[in-house]
Write a structure and sequence with these properties.
single chain; about 90 residues; alpha+beta; Alpha-Beta Plaits; five-stranded antiparallel sheet; 5 strands
């Protein structure tokens, strides 16, 4: 199973903007509801492959609305905060 990261944003407008930015640079994205146990001001988030995270975080316009990045747990229950915007 591929490792994934969930990116949370401050509002849905930022989610849709980030989706377009990521797709423009060739990163596959999935929109999904924020998982249980993940804190976010918005109920929608973006899921990407863990290997694409560094490329995603190099997009300044994406980082501007980014709230946090969470790692998918092996057990599927307890998401782990792995990065907050600088």
């Amino acid at each position: 199973m591929e490792e994934v990261r969930v990116l949370t944003f401050i509002n849905t407008s930022q989610v849709f903007h980030a989706e377009k930015l990521l797709q423009a640079v060739g990163i596959a994205v999935g929109l999904r509801p924020v998982p249980l146990g993940v804190a976010s001001r918005c109920g929608l988030c973006i899921q990407i492959a863990a290997v694409d995270l560094d490329a995603a975080l190099r997009l300044p316009k994406l980082v501007a609305g980014l709230e946090a990045v969470y790692a998918a747990p092996a057990d599927g229950n307890n998401w782990v905060l792995c990065e907050e915007p600088r």
